[in-house]
Amino acid sequence: MTTGTGRPVAAPEPPRIDAFTRTDRGVYRDAFVEVHACPAPAPLARRSRHMVRTPHFDVVHDGPRVLLTHRVPAEGIDDDLSGLLADELFSPGWLRGPEMFERLFTGIVLTSGPDPLASWTLFYRNTLRRVETVLARGGGVGGGVGGGVGGGVGGAHGTIDDYAPVYAFAEQLLEPGSVLELGCCFGFLSLRLAAAGHHVTASDLNRGTVALLDAVAPLLGVSLRTVVADAGRVPAPERSADTVLLIHLLEHLDSDHGDRVLTEAIRLARRRVVVAVPLEDEADETWGHVRTLSLADLDAWGSRTGLAHTVHEHHGGWLVLDR
């Protein structure tokens, strides 16, 4: 877009996603998507020529908007919605982009219950229960803190089966004392740590996600502190947490921003910094990844800090920095 003088004008920012939007008679609408829930006993709508139908979704493009009908039962409202959307709609190329992904994800959750808070509480309870189930059936950590831990899936990420072992391994790496998680997203790991008795601060740049965590945590019986902040500039004094966690965050940041975040984590850590990243051949835009990272990258970071460090592989790559 340009002005009459030929100078470019920045396109307007799309409306932010509001996790607490009330549905209109069970339908979620925003400027880009419309999401309907179709209860399991209800018959499927007749398939139109322009409809994409998958096991869980019907999708139709209505001009600039995407109309989605989902058949996800209440017990399926958990973070594996990410995997369903990726596998059935985004990986095949029917839909693209993290913005569309997040809007549809939000719409599916909000159409699952009578009001936004009930819907998100269902989502959190189901997810945390599913993490426990995965770990109980043997999706745990194995191995130790030393180098070269095997048995992982390398670059897998996104679904509960993939990240439950990552959470369990991160929990093994904690130093005694307080924990600060930077880029906590929904805060599942922070909730697990707080429920286990750790003094936890969960931080994320997304104000809406932090508000969601603040609202749901008391309903889950969990107490933790939250902060809205860029992970590269956190309003906290030096060495204010015993362990600082960067769990699947740095792949979402460009090189300069990632370096600032790692420097900030070192500033904030009293004893240890734990970094985890997926090991991918290509950055997966569905999950909002902007770059790939390798074990060599992690080792180079560790060497540049001048701190004692270890690098190893377990369901992705890990860098542990110790003062």
How do the strands and helices of this protein lay out in sequence?
Layout: E1 27-29, E2 33-37, E3 52-53, E4 57-62, E5 65-70, H1 81-90, H2 98-110, H3 116-136, H4 160-172, E6 179-182, H5 188-195, E7 200-204, H6 207-216, E8 225-228, E9 241-247, H7 255-268, E10 269-277, H8 295-305, E11 308-313, E12 317-322
Parallel strand pairs: 2-5, 6-7, 6-9, 7-8, 9-10
Antiparallel strand pairs: 1-2, 3-4, 4-5, 10-12, 11-12
Helix pairs in contact: 1-2, 3-4
GO biological process, one term: methylation
Protein name: Methyltransferase domain-containing protein
Pfam family, one: Methyltransf_25
Which structural traits does this protein have?
single chain, 2 domains, seven-stranded mixed β-sheet, five-stranded mixed β-sheet, 12 strands, SAM-dependent_MTases_sf
Could you characterize the architecture of this molecule?
The protein is of the alpha/beta class and 323 residues long. It has 2 domains: 27-111, no CATH class; 160-322, 3-Layer(aba) Sandwich (Rossmann fold). The chain is 31% helix and 20% strand. It contains 8 helices and 12 strands. The protein has helices at 81-90, 98-110, 116-136, 160-172, 188-195, 207-216, 255-268, 295-305; strands at residues 27-29, 33-37, 52-53, 57-62, 65-70, 179-182, 200-204, 225-228, 241-247, 269-277, 308-313, 317-322. The chain has a 7-stranded mixed β-sheet with strand order 8-7-6-9-10-12-11, with helices on both faces. It has a 5-stranded mixed β-sheet with strand order 1-2-5-4-3, covered by helices on one side. Helix 1 crosses helix 2 and helix 3 (116-136) packs across helix 4 (160-172). It is globular and about 65 Å long. The N and C termini lie far apart (51 Å). The model is unreliable at 1-5 and 142-157 (pLDDT under 50). Keywords: Methyltransferase, Transferase. GO terms for molecular function: methyltransferase activity. Residues 179-270 form the Methyltransferase domain.
